[in-house]
Structure formats: structure tokens, C-alpha cells
């Protein structure tokens, strides 16, 4: 018969043997290699967090945009940055220049007049009652001499003979009227120098007809691009609409320009 004291000693010895075995097993066990992490700090094998997907605002909820112009160049420039106006409301204005008026004042005055005319046209149209209105006007100037749109061949010829071999400036005013009646205006200037054109080149250019309806009697996006030896500033300003400034103005007033880019991507994916 085992006494209580002897039983306690036997239990204690068994416990010591068990502990010794566990220690020995731990010493011979191979350590688990650390799990690799990615460059982003995520453990390999772990689920990657899903980035939230941005959805474009449905067109029915997006604010409308009215372009106060019939210019195919301005429309094409807007479409280049993903903006398609909901309506075109050009106005017929007297664009004659007041004696002594400087180029920047001319384009600002005419751009605002175009926006105001478009506003009158859409007042009775329910669909565009809360639309943004975008208007612009462009002139070419040599010093304080303003060269407007050439409508006749001799006007374009006179302008080109004046511009050849010298520098000139292109001024465009952009006017934006917001749905809540706030006006935003910006005048952008680009400096250009033409090479010295020969009379034969001017005659051939006039025969092309490209000059018709163009400020300064030339279109830089066409044949006249070969006349330019130096340009400082916005190229799209010379075409008729300074895109950087236009997009900035629209975004600053809450028009969802970048969401239009998303909508375009979604359409292409579908």
C-alpha cells in the first residue's frame, strides 16, 4: 500500500518528466518561417482590400451645358476633353470694334454678350432653365490693332501680309454663367510668331479657302500651322477655346467634368 507521501512524490516525478519532454521537443522543433509581405505591407495570402468603385452621375441627374456658339472648332475641342454640350444656342451679334478699345476688353465684352443672348434664348426652355452657359470670343491683335474674322479674301490677304515675319497675340475670353446666376470670366493670351511668308504662299493659302471665318485670316490647326515658328501659351486658345482654363472653370463651379470621363470609360467597357 502506497502512502500519501509516496503518492505525492510519484506524481511530482511524473510532472517533472513531462516538462522535460516538452522542453526537449521545443528545442528540436523547426521555427515557422515568417509569412512574406508584399510591397504594400500586406501578408501573403491575405485578401486584398477592394478599392471603392466610382460611379458616374446618371445623365438625367447631371447639370446641363449650353454652348453659346455654332463654331465646329469649339465644339470639337470640348468633345476632345469628354464634354458634349446638351444644346447649342449661338447668337447673331454686332461684333464691330469701338475705336480705342483694347483687345482684352473686346473679347470680354463679346463673350459676355453671347452668353447673355443664349440666356434669353433658353429662358422659355424648361429643359435648360438650370443649365450652365459657356461662351467665348477670339481676336488676333498686332499691338493694339485688332484683326477680326476674315469674311472676304482681301481681308484675309491683308491680315496675312501684316502677320508674316512678325509676332502677334491671340486673345480669347471665356464666359461661364452658372445655374444660380453667377458669372465667371477669363481672358487667355497666346503669343505667336509667323515666318516670312512669300506672296506666292499667301496667294495659295487664300485659294485654299481655309481662312474663311477665322480670326486673323488663318487656322492654326490646318495649313497655317506651317506658318508658325514660335508659340508661347495655349495652343487650343488659338484654335478658339483654351481647354485648361475652360475645364478648370467648369470644375470650380461644380460641373462634373471628370465624371464624364468615367462615363466614357464605362460605355467603352460595356
Quick structural gist:
The protein has 270 residues and is of the alpha/beta class. The protein has helices at 4-28, 72-80, 103-122, 153-163, 199-208, 235-239, 243-252, 257-269; strands at 65-67, 87-88, 132-142, 145-147, 167-177, 183-194, 228-232. Strand 1 (65-67), helix 2 (72-80) and strand 2 (87-88) form a beta-alpha-beta unit.
Q: Could you report the average pLDDT, rounded to the nearest whole number?
A: 84
CATH level 1 class label:
Alpha Beta
Q: Estimate what percentage of residues fall within beta strands.
A: 15-25%
> Rough shape?
globular
Distance between the termini: 89 Å
What is the number of strand segments?
Answer: 7
Largest sheet: 7 strands, mixed
CATH topology label: Maf protein
The ordered string of helix (H) and strand (E) elements is HEHEHEEHEEHEHHH
Low-confidence stretches: 38-45
Q: Helix fraction?
A: 25-40%
Structural Rg: 36 Å
Structural class: alpha/beta
